[in-house]
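User: Can you predict the 3D structure for this chain?
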Amino acid sequence: MTARPDTPRSRRERPAKPALSRAAIVAAAVAVLRAEGLQKVTMRRLAQELDTGPASLYVYVRNTAELHAAVLDELLGAIGPVPAEGSWRERVERVLTAYTAMLFEHPSLARSALTAWPSGPHYLNLIETLLALLDEGGVPPAQAAWGVDLLLQQATATACEHSAEGSTQDDWDALADALRNVSDRTHPHIAARSGELLSGAHEARLSWRFQALIAGIERTAVPE
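Assistant: Here is the predicted structure, written as structure tokens:
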């Protein structure tokens, strides 16, 4: 007699599942992020991917916020080494631009990054890199330490702004129209500078933001 097609297989005949680990959970989360977006990176969704129960994941990751922070840290590994050419200011800008570009590729992660606090090796490497470049430029240690937080916050906020849900070209056009047609009697400064308010390509404005912050960090002492 032959076995019926619907006879369930013994568990002993199935291939063994890979051992569950934090690295495997983060890798699965990155794959789901790239395929479906951050909103699908949940404990329940990852449990399905890893063929386990959601409760098993909490042994390795405390909550979804920690998971998103770990995903951010993993993606930071793709930024690459510090540029060798250029002044220290130019290299700081390039590192920050690469970080911003990575967040541009994952809009939902950019929004999460405003409140996520990664603590993995790639995030620590990013902080170390920026501190080393500021030290190379002679920025006092306390100003460099506070400045790194400011620079990363600006980069993250920029990426978040450009990934905002519901933001459309119509919204931007309405703002531009309002600035161009404002009355010089009620808003004389806006009327005089409407062209400058709307000028500049995104890349140029991002570069200026970073350079302005770097210059301010150099010159602004940390209060005692």
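The chain has a mean pLDDT of 87. The first helix runs from residue 22 to 36.
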